[in-house]
Specification:
This protein is mainly α. It is 76% helix and 3% strand. A two-stranded antiparallel sheet has the order 1-2.
Amino acid sequence: MGGFVFKEKLKRLKVDLKIWNREVFGSLDIEDRRKEIHMLDLIDEVVGLDEHEIELRNRERAWLSKDIQNTDSLLCQKSRAKWIKEGDANTGFFHRCINRRRKNNEIVRVYINGEWKEEVEKVKNGIFDFFKTHFGPSQQCRLKSSLDFARKKVSVAGNQMFTAAFTGEEVKYTIDQ
C-alpha cells in the first residue's frame, strides 16, 4: 500500500516539475527566435530598423544564445540519463577498436641479422640486445669524449662519477620515476 502512495506522489511531482520548468525556463523554441531575428534582419536590409527594433533584435539574439546553451545542456543531461538507464550501444564498437589497436601494436616478430624471429624468447632477446647496443658501454665512450671540455672544471672524482657505467639501481630508479 505504501509503495502505491509513493508512486502516485512521484507522478504528481513529475507533473508539477514540468509546469514549473515551463514557467521558469519558458519554451526553448529556438526556431521561432531564429525566424524573428531573420525577419528583423530582412527589415533592416530593406528599410532599416529604429532604436526599439535594434534593441529587440539584440535581446532576441541574447535569448537565442541562452536558449541554445540551455538546449545543449538539456540534451547532454538527457543523453547521460539515457546512457545510465539503457547502457551504451557503442560499447561493442569501442571494444573492437581497442582490441584492433592492441593487435596492431603487438610485436609478433622481429627482423634480426637478416632473418625474422617469431619465438617469444628470441623476440625479447632481440629487443633487449638492440637497446643494449644502443645504450650500452659504446655510448659511454662517446659521452667521455664529449665531456673532455669539462675536465678542467670538474674534479677527478666528479668526472669519474659522470663517466661511470649506470648501475642497475640507477636504471630501475629512473624507470620507476
